[in-house]
Amino acid sequence: MSVLLALLACAGPEAPATPPAPSASTHAEVAPLATAPLPTSKGLYRISWLTEPAPPPLSALFEIEATLTDAAGAPVTDAKVRIDARMPQHGHGMATKPEDDPGVCDASGACSHPDGRYRTRGMKFHMPGEWTLRFDVEGPGGTDHLEVPLRL
Ligand SMILES: [Cu+2]
């Protein structure tokens, strides 16, 4: 058994002796923003988000999953979250029309978002440069929004 454990331990990935060289990727500033919950403008909610794929590609479709909580960190399941992106310096938005997933809906048309997760499909950053990702929230605590600057 100890031999097997030793073999398994040896099979694990080894830590690189030197850190990888800085990537020349234009996405370098996007990925770290995707994990930490950020307070919305008025502080009513917190939003964390990730893109699929991550980091978001240039000139290809991607999706965003946002997790919405109240200021105390409890998931908000019955809000509406609209996600959009613009290039403020160019005065234009996306060329695609993103669709916000309605969530889980019952026969009466009432929808909810289990665990406070909201998904938007059909996003595309069609130009490199400065983008602003915007989340508009209509929830039980009121309306609020979050803007996140990104550079592609
Ligand atoms: Cu542009």
Structure write-up:
The chain has one helix spanning 2-11; strands at 38-39, 45-52, 61-70, 80-87, 92-93, 99-100, 104-105, 111-112, 117-124, 130-139, 142-151. With 152 residues, it is mainly beta. The protein has a single domain, classed as Sandwich (Immunoglobulin-like), CATH 2.60.40. It has a five-stranded antiparallel β-sheet with strand order 1-2-3-9-6, with no helix packed on it. Strands 5-4-10-11 form a four-stranded antiparallel β-sheet, with no helix packed on it. The chain has a two-stranded antiparallel ribbon with strand order 7-8. Strand 10 and strand 11 form a beta hairpin. The longest helix is centred in the first third of the chain and has 10 residues, at 2-11. The chain binds copper (II) ion. The site of copper (II) ion (CU) has 5 residues, from loops.
Features:
4-stranded antiparallel beta sheet; globular; 11 strands; Immunoglobulin-like; mainly beta; binds copper (II) ion; 5-stranded antiparallel beta sheet; disordered N terminus; 7% helix; 152 residues
